[in-house]
Amino acid sequence: MPLSAFPGHARARLVALAASPLSVLCTIAIGLLGPSAMVPALPGRPWQPPYSLGLDPGGHLVVALGAAAILLGAAGLAAGLRAAEQMPPAHWTVLAGCLAAVALAFLPPSGSSDHLNYAAYGRMAALGHDPYATVPADLPGDPVIGRVEEWRTTPSVYGPVATFVQAVAAHIGGDSLRLTVFAMEAANAAAFVALAVVLHRATRDDPVRQRRAALLWAANPLVVYQLAAGMHLDTIATALVVAGVVYRRGLPLGLGVAVKVTSGLVALGVAWELRRRPRRLAAVAASAAVVVLVLYWLAGPHALDQVLNASRTVSLATPWKLVKTAAQAVFGSGAYHLEIQLGSLVVLAGLAALLLRRMSADGLLRDGAEAPPVALAFAVAWLFATPYALPWYDGLAFGLLALVPASGLDAFLVARLAALSLAYLPARQAGQPPDLGWLVSVVRAQAVPAFLLALTVALAWWAWRARPAARVPTPRA
Q1: What is the largest CA-CA distance in the chain?
Q2: What gap in Å lies between CA 125 and CA 210, rounded to an integer?
Q3: Which residues contact 189 (CB under 8 A, 6 or more apart)?
Q4: What is the pLDDT of residues 373-430, one digit of tens each?
Q5: Residue 17 pairs with which residues in a beta bridge?
Q6: Spatial contact of 315 and 389, defined as CB atoms under 8 Å apart
Q7: By the 8 A CB rule, do 296 and 160 touch?
Q8: Secondary structure, 3-state, the chain
């Protein structure tokens, strides 16, 4: 029977049930095939996890699998959100997504070489070096640190909790890069599963919202591709700060900031909701602040050095790269760091205000439930405004999106993550076939920034066109 013979929501359900699992299978296949243009090699004893078939697949094959995973994942996610009411019960969806994340933890990470950096910083800490003042190039002969590919002259940009996780993994792995990476994958999978459970329980009062939460996190093929298979620290940061928003607690918020500083922006949602309860607000703020201050003090005086340096960087796939190129063409060569930083802050503030206006008009800012939508508004505004963005950063938005009702914001975030994922296919230089250089020079540097610029304008217009929620007339006595 042709797909067109089914009603709209039934068609969407069929697309979701077909495309999303196929996307995850493509993602699993990339890691299972072994070292490639998408998967850095992990020296170590063959019996140690993570495991792969070691088939030495060609760059064209694994990039094609990555593209298929992204495109199928975007189609499956969009269709599933449209037919959320008709999707399978949430507990089965959560279970399937968590099993996929656990399976991926036993395969080598794919999509980037960031995990090699994580292992190097953990090894530095385990050996007594300061990862915030030492760079991999300082220890080129180390069996773990010496395997870093692209960030050999860059100290750690991650917070003290991230460094702690990396150092524990380094103690477990010892001289084995392979085992060190697996220990970090186990921590990453645990955070992924924990947040899936938190979101499942937080939405248990509404079966449709519970299905939606499962689709947006545990069974989100784009999130699985970027955060579970890619094994980025954003998984741990997102799990902590979203838990802080769910439970309105300062401890997980502070720990999340101590993984990645920018994730702390979502604390504004909790602060907004608690503004009329000053004692509770003071307690939450104090506990979060104490955690952050103590941990960064223990990390040493250089813990924020690279964060400040990174704040002046413009990544290739953001609209700000187009702005910088245009400024250089008109006004001459220059970095334009300050101008771009100021411009991004203006865009962030403007988008946040517009999104809050839209959420208010849609009736989402209800007393006692304001923390998730306000946190989401600031997270989305930051993602669209920041000059430096990578696709795995978007996991934060999807973790928060799972806590709010469906809206047009869903489509904007799915489109953004799909586009950024295609821009960084893959997010490493080693092993790429020379004839695929256009993926960087055209897709990453031109097409995706232009698309994201148009998407940002469309998001602002959508938020601006908000209409006040209909007021229910009060019955006369």
Answers
A1: 83
A2: 41
A3: 101, 102, 104, 105, 228
A4: 999 999 999 999 999 999 999 999 999 999 999 999 999 999 999 999 999 999 988 8
A5: none
A6: yes
A7: yes
A8: CCHHHCCHHHHHHHHHHHHHHHHHHHHHHHHHHCCCCCCCCCCCCCCCCCCCCCCCCCHHHHHHHHHHHHHHHHHHHHHHHHCHHHCCCHHHHHHHHHHHHHHHHCCCCCCECHHHHHHHHHHHHHCCCCCCCCCHHHCCCCCCHHHCCCCCCCCCCCCHHHHHHHHHHHHHHCCCHHHHHHHHHHHHHHHHHHHHHHHHHHCCCCHHHHHHHHHHCCCCHHHHHHHHCCCCCHHHHHHHHHHHHHHCCHHHHHHHHCCCHHHHHHHHHHHHHHHHCHHHHHHHHHHHHHHHHHHHHHHCCCCCHHHHHHCCCCCCCCHHHHHHHHHHHHHCCCCCHHHHHHHHHHHHHHHHHHHHHHHHHCCCCCCCCCHHHHHHHHHHHHHHHCCCCCHHHHHHHHHHHCCCCCCCHHHHHHHHHHHHHHHCCCECCCCCCHHHCHHHHHHHHHHHHHHHHHHHHHHHHHHHCCCCCCCCCCCCC
| 449's tokens | 């920034």
- Amino acid residing at 198: V
Joined together, the tokens standing for residue 167 give 């150092």
Q: State the CB neighbour count (10 A cutoff) for residue 345.
A: 12
Q: Which two tokens stand for residue 277?
A: 């309860």
Distance CA 13, CA 208 (A): 14
The letter for the amino acid at 288 is: A
- Identity of the residue numbered 409: L
- Per DSSP, what are the bridge partners of residue 423? none
Walk along the chain (477 residues) and give the pLDDT tens digit of each residue: 444 544 567 889 999 999 999 999 999 999 999 999 999 999 988 889 999 999 999 999 999 999 999 999 999 999 999 999 999 999 999 999 999 999 999 999 999 999 999 999 999 999 999 999 999 999 999 999 999 998 899 999 999 999 999 999 999 999 999 999 999 999 999 999 999 999 999 999 999 999 999 999 999 999 999 999 999 999 999 999 999 999 999 999 999 999 999 999 999 999 999 999 999 999 999 999 999 999 999 998 888 888 888 778 899 999 999 999 999 988 888 878 889 999 999 999 999 999 999 999 998 888 778 999 999 999 999 999 999 999 999 999 999 999 999 999 999 999 999 999 999 999 988 888 999 999 999 999 999 999 999 999 999 999 999 776 554 444 443
User: Rounded to whole angstroms, how far apart are CA atoms 379 and 289?
Assistant: 20
Which residues make Cβ contacts (< 8 Å) with residue 371, sequence separation at least 6?
A: 245, 248, 269, 270, 272, 273, 274
